[in-house]
């Protein structure tokens, strides 16, 4: 994307410059990972107390950091690996691992944790059922949807994520992670579900993730509030004049930009979502997570 933008811009200035850039300049892909929640007034006050003055650019974040860089340089690569950066031939599998195992698990906790009354991710992790269920999602579903040749110990990575999510000093709000679900669900839940389906693996936790999102959206709109999502108006139109909550959910599942035509074309997908949705509806999200953790 960066290469296309720069070469196109250069071509408008000087086609010869654009040709030289295309031939002699590389644009290594990268992936970064560090949990940096939105700042709160209390955290700004904490920084002020520690350093003696107000810093409007200050942040509170975790110790962990990861930088994966495509090994694609024209004149020798910089020795950033000495500081912990990883050079790899292809960044995409690592990006996919992060999107599914970290971000997908975050979304699972955000929607279902919010339904359970948890404000922060670390509070979800203090609930043993949530902790067990999200570990199952990571190791038994998301990890099994990844590139088989990924040179990473996914069980070790999952434990690292569990530890990171459990950090009580990182005030990562479920509501913040729940934002913009329409832009996140395809990569974090739908794609891995379909990969598992093609590989003959059940995606019960992924179905619970999507069911949690459905309840989260319906509950928010039913209370007269807006969903923090660019498709909020589409969601409102989808659930309008529906007789039951499942009819509302089914209408949301027919939003093409999120789910394509899966609601009509993939009976197993629809059945798994409906089962998870109905269990939350009838028994509550806490009982649903307990059931998932006991089977995991």
UniProtKB/TrEMBL annotation:
One GO BP: mannitol metabolic process
Positions of the Mannitol dehydrogenase C-terminal domain: 90-280
Entry protein name: D-mannonate oxidoreductase
A GO term for molecular function: fructuronate reductase activity
Pfam annotation, one family: Mannitol_dh_C
PANTHER family: MANNITOL DEHYDROGENASE 2-RELATED, MANNITOL DEHYDROGENASE DSF1-RELATED
Boundaries of every Mannitol dehydrogenase N-terminal domain copy: 3-82
Keywords: NAD, Oxidoreductase
InterPro entries attached to this UniProt entry: 6-PGluconate_DH-like_C_sf, 6PGD_dom2, Mannitol_DH, Mannitol_DH/Oxidoreductase, Mannitol_DH_C, Mannitol_DH_CS, Mannitol_DH_N, NAD(P)-bd_dom_sf
Enzyme Commission code(s) on record: 1.1.1.57, 1.1.1.67
PROSITE patterns for this protein: MANNITOL_DHGENASE
Keyword Oxidoreductase: yes
